[in-house]
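Look over both lines before class:
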Amino acid sequence: MRYQLLKTCLIVGMILLVFIQPALAFDFSSWDGILKKYVDSKTINGVTLNAVDYKKLAKDSAYTKIVKDIEAASLSTLKSKDEKLAFWINVYNIMAAKMVLDNYPVKSIKDAGSLFTAVWKKPVGVVAGKERTLNEIEHEILRKMGEPRIHVAIVCASVSCPDLRKEAYTADKLNNQLDDQMTQFLANPKKGLAVDDKKGYVYVSSIFKWFEEDFEPKGGVRTFIAPYSPEPLQALVTNDKLTVYYLDYDWGLNEL
């Protein structure tokens, strides 16, 4: 009798443990492996960047699986702000690659759009049971979370975009990853930041023009990016005597 009671209590305890154990956030380890396998450095039109081997990526079953897993993902598992940010940044990058592959071959992701519908507003895939667009993920979800560093983490499959990081974003490393992304982006004079103090010019990515309002709560673009800039340029970035100009944006495909 005592043995039977003990056995019953043990079973009940195990059942309760299963149900009260918190659900884990989405696992992007397979995406991490994909990035390490198919992303590498390349120079395109004079710009050095991390490019993607789209042809090989399209044939990898791990890529197909991560897209399927995202369709069935549960947003209720995302508890903290960093979990939500990491999830949607990874999803944006996966879906941007999907948009390219769904329309491959293309010279630019913008070619996947049409005269009537820009590529950003085209349905790109299902995320957590709902059809999404890149526009929705970026503007309706990520930007509303108040983290301007997302703009150097989400990659629109183009030469002038910030580099596609060769690892997945994770909540526990997110702050360091975003800091590093901003630092690396601004260290690239062809697409992040360049200064010509003799001419009195500061050249920055057009991204900082398009999303200037997102940096205003943090003191403005120049104040925000100065600490991430190469050390010799930090004082020049915030020098009001230098005029800001925006670098031309190359929408060519970031293909390896």
Confidence is low (pLDDT under 50) at residues 12-22. Residues 23-187 form one domain.
